[in-house]
Amino acid sequence: MTASGFLMATVAVDVVVVALVLAATYFLASQDALIGVAVGGVLGVLNLFSLAWLCGRLVATEGTKWPWAVGLALKFALLIGVVFLAVTYVPMDVIGFVVGLSASGLAMVLATSWLAIRKMELTP
């Protein structure tokens, strides 16, 4: 499996995990928690997608690599700013937000475990 294919598969797993958490939150928690999971999940998916895209460019590019490295730093700073704005101004449950944002970590563990169980190696 190619590295870019794996990263896109990880993003797809993240979308599924966020959808499952949203469904569970809809039935088991408050509307504020549902909003928090939705906002956190969307930010997590966007963050993971942009991370995959930027890292793919950083690894695959034959030419100058520093612009992609700077892009990673700027993406991180932007994420911090967006998280601050979301927590400050969006009327949501912050624990739900953290749960939604953390779904990306679970998606990475699940996708990596799938690779390990199938004994697959990544190719450029």
Question: What's the structural blueprint in terms of helices and strands?
Answer:
Elements: H1 3-28, H2 31-60, H3 66-89, H4 94-117
Radius of gyration: 16 Å
Calculate the terminal CA-CA distance, rounded to whole Å: 9 Å
> Unreliable stretches, pLDDT < 50, 5 or more residues?
none
Mean pLDDT: 92
The helix-strand sequence is: HHHH
The biggest sheet amounts to:
none
In helices, the fraction of residues equals over 70%
Number of domains: 1
Q: Structural class of the helix and strand makeup?
A: mainly alpha
Number of strands: 0
Beta-strand share of residues = under 5%
- What would you call the shape? flat
- How many helices in DSSP terms? 4
Folded structure, characterized:
It is a single chain. By secondary structure, this protein is mainly alpha-helical. The protein has one domain. It has four helices and no strands. Helix 1 crosses helix 4, helix 2 packs antiparallel against helix 3 and helix 2 packs across helix 4. The longest helix is centred in the middle third of the chain and has 30 residues. The chain is flat and about 50 Å long. The N and C termini lie close together (9 Å). The model has no long low-confidence stretch (mean pLDDT 92).
